[in-house]
Amino acid sequence: MTQKIQRHWLVWPTVLAGVMAILWLVVIAMYQVDPVYLISDKLVTLLVIFVIYLIAYIRTKEHLRAPWREVFHRKLAMIALIFISVYLVIALIDSIHFRLPLQKNTVTEQAQYETRVLSLFDVLVMPLRKRVEHSYSAPFASYGLAKETLELAAGREVRDYPRLRYGGTHLSDPNSQTLTDVARSLAKAGLITLVIWIVLVAASIYLLAWQQGQGWNEKRQQIWREQTIVPWRVVFATWGVVLFIITSLIILSADYHVFGTDKVGQDVLYLSLKSIRTGVLIGTLATLVMLPFAVLLGMMAGYFRGIIDDIIQYIYTTLSSIPGVLLIAAAILSIQLYIAAHKDTYTLVEKHSDLRLVFLCIILGITSWTGLCRLLRGETLKIREIDYIQAATALGVSHFRILSRHVLPNVMHIVLIAVVLDFSALVLAEAVLSYVGIGVDQSTNSWGNMINTARLELAREPAVWWPLLSAFVLMFILVLAANLFSDAVRDAFDPKLRRLSGRV
Amino acid sequence: MTQPILQVDDLATYFGHVDKPVRAVDGVSFSIAPGQTFALLGESGCGKSMTALSLLQLVPAPAGRIIRGRINFMGQDLLRYSEAQMRTVRGNEIAMIFQEPMTALNPVLTVGQQIIETLQQHKQMDYAAALQRTLALLDAVRIPAPKSRIHDYPHQLSGGMKQRVMIALTLACEPKLLIADEPTTALDVTIQAQVLNLIKDLQRDTGMAVLLITHDLGIVADNVDQVAVMYAGQIVETASRDAFFSNPRHPYSKKLFAALPTRHKRGQTLEIIKGSVPRLNRIFSGCRFVDRCDFAWQACHDAAPLWLAEADKGVRCHLYDPKVAKAAELNPAIASPTPSASATFTSTTEAPLLRVHDLKVHFPIRKGLFKKTVGHVFAVDGVSLEIGTGRTVALVGESGCGKTTVGKAILQLVTTSAGQVHYADMPYGQLDKATQRRFRGEVQIIFQDPYSSLNPRMQVGEIIAEGLDVQEPTLTPAQRQQRIAELLAHVGLPDEAISRYPHEFSGGQRQRVSIARALAVNPKLLVCDEPTSALDLSVQAQILNLLKSLQDKLGLSYLFITHNLLVVEYLAHEVAVMYLGRLVEYGNVESVLNQPLHPYTRALLAAAPVFDQQGKQQLHALEGEIPSPIAPPAGCHFHTRCPQVMPICRTHYPIATRQAEGHRVSCHLYSDVARQQTK
To answer: How far apart (Å, rounded) are the C-alpha atoms in residues B236 and B277?
Structure first.
């Protein structure tokens, strides 16, 4: 029976991964694009595959499912999760890179591609990327921020605020019309949202009812009375909010620069959306780098004790006594030197800024594993004395098997809690580091870089506040959602807290 | 009859959801006279502790709530009291001591500070008076050198000392009623006897009433005036102590007596109470005990029995209700216990299965930067014993004497410092790691705590298969599956247990899983480390029966580590008595228990609250506590507590002398050298 289950849980994630790969190949063949695999993209792919398998595994184990069910039962956690998922989806779409084909050169018969590497996200929001103004413009503005010398039809020159090339061009008198036009667009977005939402919710209820063999009406009433494990009523409401935000952004950004434009006229909304990938990547990849160190060394130190414990302890106490910023600065500077020395290998801008991003992840991971390692060592010290480990030793089970079958599953909740708690801290760390100038490359879109440039922009007269606001809002939503979600995860997985709430 | 000090009427405390409450206490009535000791007896999960907490209105809110009832304490209805009023009652009028003395004292305050603070608050004493009173109190609870002890922090005291301090703390305000919730469960037998005697003496001096909550029939036998048996949230029987022990009336009480392992029941299977305590979240239509009762008939299923009160006793059972029609014939299942299938006692003349010679386990104490060894904990210091095939050797002693370490050293779970462990003439301890791992299957261990001995993340099937996978990796999945099913059947668990997790099982069932895991690798010897001490009496009987039948069927040998002498009498062939890392007496069970030679063995036997049907005995408490194994006393380790101590005991450790056939004792009372010297 156990054999059957094991074969079973591996099937669907493998099929899913296979389907995704085939889909990608089909897209490449159809659109004749040249796929570009950045290092970070490969790592993201690895992470996605890992997560898919992990979910499949968790579904087979009741003791793993139960706390997750508790997480999904919490309304706040579900709301946070929906917002996080939107960020994750954007980050994933933004991680599929390729170069579009140019017109075929008939002479050489060789396929030629644009020099610029685009992501799937870039293609989806192409208009946003292409509509570049001259310079700064405020959110929803139809005029530039600074006066320019304009040439009138009669040949006269006049100093005035120029009309923007793309923002609010459909308005004859922007000053009086903008407000009503925005309101009209929002109403339109509301209507469209309503239609999509009704279809979506109806389909979901139908699916849920079908899955559990219930009637449509019965399911609907159950959801309305909140008798389901997942609080679908709240989930549907959040869907509505998210849908409304997305559709209104789409509709409004067709006519306006919702978050204004920056110094070179790029749409700030586009820049902040592109920054999502950087933030999410650093939050996840740095933990990915950290985990093997922390888990392996922490468990080994606690389990074997003696000389191994001493060595590992000395390593992490030494490492954690060096200021992290110092290490990071040193690492980033040396990677810059390395890139400068190997200019030929890194012909594409994207490639060398990506290398720096990955390195930042690695160095953040290396400087942050000590805390979790220390926690795991302590927990393993406790667990190794518990009777079931002794029983396993008495049965002649090998050290490796004891570590993987007895210790690891029993410290997994700590790992999980640490990962979700670290995520938001790392997103913030990236912003701080980029602000200081030792974060990601200047050419990489990131909230930290946006905040860094905002330092000078705020000093201008009139102040340019919107890039800062935009970065702040997007980062705030992500970090807040991540924190709320991690709270729920900690409550559900921490045995001490659970005992308090579950006491009868 | 005098006015009772406490009268409880129809008390009910519910827990959890309003629609589906857990009826922890469901209509409990009793009364306690001044100066009386009243015992509330029952298995875990019967609502004993909840009753006590309800009396003080300490039920954890908002989950629990008192639904109805009246608590009349010295003419006042406590349930009408406000929280502020209750605070003047708690401690002043009714005091409570808890099971776990470790957690009941504040670890960051000294013992003296805690008592003085209590006195200053409740009695409005000034500091000097409070200090005087504290010293008197500590003296009253027989703490030696109270002047220096009041500056100690709780962690510097032993468990028994802490419980004494707790008692001193509760006595500080001279309560009229003392509630003792399993006060000695966490303590050793000798310390238990000391504490129980102390409570009895204090009660005599102060005239307070005591509500003693316990699951131990032995404690009840020695210490109380009135007994109430609790079952599933209700009191099913009350009687005076003598009446209860000479003629228990409720079938549940009868069963409890029958489940007790004693010497008279050797070679017989113990009477067990089938099933377990019912969950209290349902509404009972009939008697709550009906599913486990041997006498049950239709009426028991149909209607809940009424409380049938007589002068000073009462019972809740249809058997005694004249208005309920009896069944045509009663099933007298308790009458005669059946002897077990084959009580074969193999002879010990053949080579013993396990020979332990001069085993020593010293744990080094390291200090400083370079981890220099500054001393040793002499956990096991020269133990020799032999276990024959199919025999049970019991290892007895107080906690901290190194019994468990002996067990673990035999399994090579701790590194031995010296001595040999020969298993079937093979030097088990000296094998290299790889060979040792192969022989791991021969000796297995069963732990005391059924909750920590199973990995909560693994299914029962996986747990049992763990040893199989290591020792017999060649099994096909089908064979493996079949073996697991066989093992489950062996230990009396249902087939579907295979895919369930440990937390879905009760303590007794978990212990069965532990046994199945050990049996998976076909061991010849099982080290049982107090396998039943965490279990209720009725479940203990089930596990003991299982171990006994497995021994008969498979010819297993047991090293049975325990402090429960009743179990020893019932199960063991040989007894080894251990004190501070060394064996002080060794021999077969009859000679050691009938003619104990070593003063320590005698003290252990005297301290164990053994009851017979009438006799009410004063417990003979051994003075003092077990010394630290870091610095054992010079000479005979026991001389600090020995009532028959001689000068030589303080200087020389006695050599083991052979008394009768196979009966060894290490005591100067029996060594010729010492006798000559004293002449």
So the answer is: 14
Q: Measured in whole angstroms, how far is the alpha carbon of residue A353 from the centre of its chain?
A: 18
CA distance A381 to B663: 42
Asked whether residue B541 is assigned to any structural domain, the reply reads yes
Distance of residue B22 Cα from the nearest chain A Cα, in angstroms: 8
Distance from CA of A59 to the nearest CA of B (A): 14
Query: What digits encode the pLDDT tens for the residues A15-71?
Result: 988 998 999 999 888 888 888 888 889 999 988 998 998 888 888 877 778 888 888
Q: What is the ipTM of this complex?
A: 0.79
Spell out which residues of chain B touch residue A311, defining contact as CB-CB under 8 Å.
none
Residue B103 and residue B114: Cα distance in Å, rounded? 14
* Domain presence at residue B667: yes
SS3 label, residue A263: coil
Asked if A504's CB is within 8 angstroms of B15's CB, the reply is yes
Rg (CA), chain B: 27
Look at residue B616 and tell me whether its pLDDT is greater than 50. no
pLDDT the model gives residue A105:
59
* pLDDT band for position B339 (cuts 50, 70, 90): very low
Mean pLDDT lowest for which of A148-157, B343-352, B381-390, B579-588? B343-352
Distances (CA, A) of B172 to B6, B88, B144: 21, 14, 18
Give the residue from A2, A395, A493 with the most B CB atoms within 10 Å of its CB, the best one to mutate.
Answer: A395
Distance CA A91, CA A79 (A): 19
Asked if residue B521 is part of any domain, the answer here is yes
A314 close contact with B: CB closer than 8 A:
no
Domain span at B164:
108-169
Q: Domain end: B132, B148, B169, which one?
A: B169
Q: Which residue of B has its CA nearest to A390?
A: B413
- Mark B450-479 as b/e (b = at least 16 C-beta within 10 Å): bebbbbebbbbbbbbbbbbbbbeeeeeeee
- As for how many domains chain B has, the answer is 2
Cβ-based contacts of B449 with chain A (< 8 Å): 387
Q: Give the residue from A58, A61, A388, A401 with the most B CB atoms within 10 Å of its CB, the best one to mutate.
A: A388
Q: Which domains does chain A have, with CATH numbers?
A: 2-102+267-501 (1.10.3720.10), 128-255 (no CATH)
pLDDT digits 0-9 by tens, A9-25 = 788 888 988 998 999 99
Predicted local distance difference test score (pLDDT) of residue B673: 59
SS3 B559: strand
Q: Is A4 on the interface with B (CB under 8 A)?
A: no
Please list the residues that pair with A137 across neighbouring strands: A261
